[in-house]
Amino acid sequence: MKNVTDPFLFLGFWPSAGSFGLNTDILATNPINLSVVLGVLIFFGKGVLSDLLDNRKQRILKTIRNSEELRGGALEQLEKARDRLRKIEMEADQFRVNGYSEIEREKLNLINSTYKTLEQLENYKNETIHFEQQRAINQVRQRVFQQALQGALGTLNSCLNNELHLRTINTNIGMFGTMKEIKG
């Protein structure tokens, strides 16, 4: 069985002036190739991913600001409703003899409708934030996958020509035959 570090140990035995050779040992070259591909993906994909995340962050922050503005409007409506409630209570003191129960019903209806409105606005804000977050995550995942795939295909297409491809296949077939003979 061949040791994984064997190709690196024989580097000292290569002549300093001689022909240039290509290491076709897959076990020695795959980690190097993978590290180069990963380095290129990280180097070139970092900026794009950062820009995508910043854009999504700005959209989400804008949605949150809009929701906060809606919430502020709802709070203003609540304050107006409370002012109106105070006025109604003053009128209730004046008309207590004539219809105290009617005024109480109006007050409760006003409070209930205001709270329902606030609750609906809060639910809408939360749903919008959740939807935007999920959409941003899905878009980033798609974009990263597409860019990684395009980068890997580009690297493979630029590095693998017909001659190298045939030599790699022949080497692998030879290694397979040798392994079969050793086992047989």
From TrEMBL:
Gene Ontology terms for molecular function: proton-transporting ATP synthase activity, rotational mechanism
Coiled-coil stretches noted in the UniProt entry, renumbered to this chain: 64-98
Primary localization class, coarse: membrane
Assembly information from the UniProt record: F-type ATPases have 2 components, F(1) - the catalytic core - and F(0) - the membrane proton channel. F(1) has five subunits: alpha(3), beta(3), gamma(1), delta(1), epsilon(1). F(0) has four main subunits: a(1), b(1), b'(1) and c(10-14). The alpha and beta chains form an alternating ring which encloses part of the gamma chain. F(1) is attached to F(0) by a central stalk formed by the gamma and epsilon chains, while a peripheral stalk is formed by the delta, b and b' chains.
Family: Belongs to the ATPase B chain family.
Record-annotated membrane-spanning stretches: 31-49
Its membrane topology: Single-pass membrane protein
Role this protein plays: Component of the F(0) channel, it forms part of the peripheral stalk, linking F(1) to F(0). F(1)F(0) ATP synthase produces ATP from ADP in the presence of a proton or sodium gradient. F-type ATPases consist of two structural domains, F(1) containing the extramembraneous catalytic core and F(0) containing the membrane proton channel, linked together by a central stalk and a peripheral stalk. During catalysis, ATP synthesis in the catalytic domain of F(1) is coupled via a rotary mechanism of the central stalk subunits to proton translocation.
Compartment list: Membrane; Plastid, Chloroplast thylakoid membrane
The organism's place on the tree of life at top rank: Eukaryota
Entry keywords, A to Z: ATP synthesis, CF(0), Chloroplast, Coiled coil, Hydrogen ion transport, Ion transport, Membrane, Plastid, Thylakoid, Transmembrane, Transmembrane helix, Transport
PANTHER family referenced in this protein's UniProt entry, alphabetically: ATP SYNTHASE SUBUNIT B, CHLOROPLASTIC
Keyword Repressor among record annotations: no
InterPro entries per the UniProt record, alphabetical: ATP_synth_b/b'su_bac/chlpt
Protein name: ATP synthase subunit b, chloroplastic
GO cellular component terms, A-Z: chloroplast thylakoid membrane; proton-transporting ATP synthase complex
UniProt keyword annotation of Transport present: yes
Note: In plastids the F-type ATPase is also known as CF(1)CF(0).
